[in-house]
């Protein structure tokens, strides 16, 4: 069973159980999947995201960023997280090398100089209103769905692409049924081994 299938099934069998919580809101499994579907429809129908495109996230460990990632993957697209100051400071060069279709950011952010993206919008707009577009869902777990960046020994940025299948293979049995996201959500030592592991085990992910 793929992660997409698992989440869809949980939305039916665990609909009232809380999958994520923060100071902003509690999200049940039913709402979690519903918002992923809404996000998929908006990405495709309103912002034109298709298979092979890249969507950027600028922020730090936001609750809605997890739903953004899964919605992006359902479009067959890749998410480029810009969570660390070093990546944000180098965003002009990064976005020149990796063109994005849209950049979504944490709601409270205000840019002195907006990033060079064709569309720039706040993350809450992903789920704020219902989209009546019927998305063409890909749900191919072998497609690249996440781009991570790191500096090599010479100080140059390098990229790695991960499919949902690869990330799912890195999940483990969580020690507890809760995981608290302290800062960045998409770091290699956090996202697959902690966040996705908790998600697949039916636990709760806690955000700030």
Automatic annotation (TrEMBL):
Gene3D superfamilies named in the record: N-terminal domain of ligase-like
Residue intervals of the AMP-dependent synthetase/ligase domain: 10-109
InterPro entries in the record: AMP-dep_synth/lig_dom, ANL_N_sf
Entry protein name: AMP-binding protein
Organism: Herminiimonas contaminans
Pfam family, one: AMP-binding
Top-level taxon: Bacteria
